[in-house]
Amino acid sequence: MTERGGHACDSQLEQSVCAEMQHQGLAHEHRSLHFRVADEAGGKADYTPAIVARRGSILFLVDSVESGTDRDAIDRFSRFLEQHSPELVLVLVTTDDAVERIPPGAYDEVYAASDVGKLTTRIRSQDPKGIIRPFEKPSPRDSAR
User: Fold this and answer.
1) For residue 72, how many other CB atoms are within 10 A of its CB?
2) How far apart are CA 45 and CA 7, in angstroms?
3) 21 CB contacts (<8 Å, ≥6 apart)?
4) What confidence tens digit (pLDDT) does each residue in 62-84 have?
5) How big is the CA angle at 92 (ends 87 and 94), to the nearest 5 degrees?
6) What is the DSSP annotation of 101-145?
7) Which residues in 100-124 are b (16+ Cβ under 10 Å) and which e?
8) CA–CA separation, 19 vs 66, rounded Å?
9) Whole-prediction pTM
10) pLDDT tens track for 91-138
11) How many other C-beta atoms lie within 10 A of the C-beta of residue 63?
């Protein structure tokens, strides 16, 4: 875990998001919310998003996934989305080459590591009293590529 301006970051991706949020003046918290997510076997697993940014009643939960092959993380994110409020926006940040390999059911919004400025601007510009702006999900790459 690394410290950035008093913020504890677990990964390089999280540190990059945190730095950009601080740069743009977007208030955020690290690991401040805790959820329980039912698993396929009927048990419950803990899930604590890395970063939380609040815009009125809308909560942006920002987390990172290193690759589209991290099945455990992708399954957890997908189950979380199925089980929790639509006022929680799950945003994933991943490596530039993995964006199109993250299944659309695992996030509300996804950004490449090189787009953390765009991610932060999007959250900062969300009207706290408005509806959540739609996000156009990238289409998955053809597996033959």
Assistant:
1) 9
2) 25
3) 27, 28, 51, 53, 120, 123
4) 999 988 888 989 999 999 999 98
5) 175
6) GS-GGG-SEEEEGGGHHHHHHHHHHS-TTSPPPP--PPPPPPTT-
7) bbbeeebbbbbbbbebbeebbebbe
8) 18
9) 0.87
10) 999 999 999 999 999 999 999 999 999 999 999 999 999 888 888 877
11) 23
Q: Which two tokens stand for residue 83?
A: 């089980």
* Residue 65 to residues 102, 103, 142, Cα–Cα distance (Å): 9, 12, 21
The single-letter code of the amino acid at 90 is L
The edge-to-edge listing of strands for the beta sheet with 88-94 is: 29-30, 51-55, 58-64, 88-94, 109-112
Q: Is 58 helix (H, G, I), strand (E, B) or coil?
A: strand
Q: Are 21 and 51 in contact (CB under 8 A)?
A: yes
